[in-house]
Design brief:
Mean pLDDT: 87
Structural class: alpha/beta
Helix content: 25-40%
Protein name: ABC transporter ATP-binding protein
Keywords: ATP-binding, Nucleotide-binding, Transport
Largest sheet: 6 strands, mixed
GO molecular function: ATP binding
CATH architecture of the largest domain: 3-Layer(aba) Sandwich
Family: Belongs to the ABC transporter superfamily.
Length: 296
């Protein structure tokens, strides 16, 4: 069995009295594009900063590629990180950024970096401060990938981009993954983007993991069940109710079948967006919108 790209046990990060991440236990397999989804303040950036070694946990344990994050220069070289504002140096040219990347990273792939810059049409002489948001994001992606990491971490990389720039970024990301054979963790609140490019999902809300797993398995094993009031009170073992809505005459449940063998009458699959929203509303103590639609 290959080493998980990210493994945590009861991982917790506090800032004073504020808990940014609580008791997080995860095992994410290598070779995946992982979508980390949740509302603002859910703990996504904190988890990614811990994985990149930018901060240390308050308690618990985390390993990235089998080692402590940022343990030494060799471990740093194995991980590429792009922060939310896709940081580049406004006063440096595109070519300056490539030279800086080569100077700082022993495994730097000069040919790859130059080819990618040419492919996306960036002028090497142009200052980064004069690039569009989409171009800055593409430059940051190129810099992270050209160090030839085993893991690429992105914290909301497309949040500020227009739809065309966002699509171009995600297309380039998928091309990088195919070409470099690497793992990716991508945080986002745009579920459509996650569904387009990711094959593994982690849902964070209220500083805790709500659900995690392969996207195909999760969508196949979450169902909506509608039946007469009282008929769904006793469910088979392994069927966990995520949300419930009742009227005087009927009940509607969103359930997670952890056995993968749901044969309940009236069960129908739900999409990824409905599934994610159900978990987020449950975490916040709200009634899920997908259930409200069934009210009589």
């Amino acid at each position: 069995m290959s080493t998980p790209v990210l493994s945590t046990t009861a991982l917790t990060k506090r800032y004073g009295r504020h808990t940014a991440l609580a008791e997080t236990t995860l095992d994410i397999p290598a070779g995946r594009i992982v979508g980390l989804v949740g509302p603002n303040g859910a703990g996504k950036s904190t988890l990614l900063a811990l994985a990149a070694g930018l901060i240390r946990p308050t308690s618990g344990h985390i390993e990235v590629l089998g080692r402590t994050p940022a343990a030494d220069a060799a471990q740093l070289a194995r991980v590429g990180f792009v922060a939310q504002d896709t940081p580049v140096y406004a006063g440096l040219s595109v070519a300056d950024h490539l030279r800086l990347g080569e100077h700082l990273n022993p495994a730097w792939d000069r040919r790859f970096a130059q080819a990618r810059i040419a492919q996306i049409g960036l002028d090497p002489a142009k200052k980064a401060g004069r690039l569009s948001g989409g171009q800055k994001a593409q430059l940051a992606l190129t810099l992270a990938a050209a160090k030839r990491p085993e893991l690429l971490i992105f914290d909301e990389p497309v949040a500020a981009l227009d739809p065309l720039a966002r699509r171009a970024f995600l297309q380039n990301l998928m091309a990088f993954v195919a070409e470099l054979d690497i793992s990716v963790i991508l945080s986002s609140h745009l579920i459509g983007d996650v569904e387009r490019v990711c094959d593994h999902l982690v849902v964070l809300a209220e500083s805790r993991v709500q659900v995690a797993g392969e996207i195909d398995d999760l969508t196949a094993n979450h169902h909506r069940i509608v039946g007469p009031r009282g008929s769904l009170d006793a469910l088979p073992d392994g069927i966990h109710v995520i949300a419930a809505d009742h009227t005087p005459r009927q009940s509607t449940l969103i359930v997670h079948d952890t056995t993968g063998r749901t044969t309940l009458d009236g069960a129908e699959p739900i999409g990824l967006e409905d599934m994610v929203l159900t978990y987020l509303h449950r975490a916040e103590g709200l009634t899920a919108p997908t259930l409200q639609e069934t009210r009589a």
